[in-house]
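Extended Data, panel c. Modelled sequence:
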Amino acid sequence: MKNIIITGASGNLGEVVVAAFKSADYFLNLVIRQAYEDTERIRAWQADLTDAKSVAKLVEDITHADPQIDAVIHLVGGYAPGKLDHTGLSELDQMIDINFKSAFILFQEILPFLKKQGEGKFICIGAQAAGMPNLARNNVAYAFSKQLLYQLVEIINAAGYAEKISAHILLPTTLDTDLNRKHMPNADFSQWTTLSEISETLKKIVDGQELRSILSFK
C-alpha cells in the first residue's frame, strides 16, 4: 500500500483527488483545514504551509507515524487577477506565499526523509496560462508565483538528489469547476481541464505509469 501526503485536501480539486485515491489501495495523510475523522487508511493533519516551523512539525509528525512516504501531492494554491499596473506588493507576496513558498518549504522539509529512503515523488499544480504572456498579463502576481513553482520542479530534478526522487508539475488549462463556470459563463468549457483528468494523472504518476516531469493538458 502506497503512503501519500495530500495538501489542500479540502479544496475543490482536493476533494476530487482524495475521492479518487480513497477508492484504491493507498494510505492518505491529508493536510486539511477543517476537522476530519481519521479512518483505517486516512489520517488528517493541520499546518500552516507558509510557515517553516509549522511545516517542519508536520513532516516530523507524519514521518514518525509512517516509515515510508511514496509521494507528496501538493494541491495548496490560490488565484488572484490583476494587471501589472494594478498589482501591489501585498498581492504579489500573497500569491508567492500560497503558490510557491508553500511548495518550497514543504519540499525542503520532506527532502531529508526522501533522501534517507532513496525515493519519492513530489507533485504540484501549475498553470499553462502562467507561461503565456498574453494571458499572464491579466493575473500578474498569480503568473509569477506559478512560474516560480515551475522553476522549482525543474531545479529539483536537475539537482539529482537520488535516481528515484522526482518532481512533477501538472499544467492544466482553466480548471472545470462550478465556480469557474459561474465566473466565465460564456467560455468554451470543452477546452478546460476536468478535475477527474487531474486526479487520474496524479494516480498514474504515483503508480509509476507516468514518468514525465512536465505534463500539459489540452
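The longest strand covers residues 164-171. This feature is highlighted in the accompanying rendering.
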